[in-house]
Amino acid sequence: MGDIGKDINSRFSNNKVKALINIKYTANWLYSKEIEYFKPYGISPQQYNILRILRGAGKQLTVQTIKDRMIERAPNVTRLMDKLCAKSLIERVRCDHDRRVVYISISKNGLALLKKIDSVFDIDFIDKISEEEAEVLSNLLDKIR
């Protein structure tokens, strides 16, 4: 079982500091796992998030709406979408009455990729905690925010 003190060879002044460091350390660890997981699909975790948002919406969304719904607020959303567009995973349509507004929708290729990812999506490390523990953890994280 992991121990943040041993993992980073450190002591903490109190349990709140230890918890904060542990959250940051674990978030980074999870992000590394995500990068590794999505690499074979040729997308980043942020791009996966954009595709999920579009699939969940079931309709085209503005770039700003997608930015607002992202888990990780990425300042480079336009660049992320450029890459998704180049891979034919999303489609862009300019608004007829306001050329500054761009609508984004998920393409058939994007839906197919998500279906492929969903069919093998495996987060076995989360199986180390029970449903009840997951609920407590989620509630504690909500409380912090």
Average residue-wise pLDDT: 90
The major β-sheet equals: 3 strands, antiparallel
Strand order of the largest sheet: 1-3-2
Question: What is the element string, with H for helices and E for strands?
Answer: HHHEHHEEHH
Amount of beta strand: 5-15%
Tell me the number of strands: 3
Q: How many alpha or pi helices?
A: 7
Helix content: 55-70%
Task: Return residue spans where pLDDT drops below 50 for at least 5 consecutive residues.
Answer: none
Derived from helix and strand composition plus strand pairing, the structural class reads mainly alpha
N/C terminus separation = 27 Å
Query: What is the 3D shape?
Result: elongated
Rg measurement, Å: 19 Å
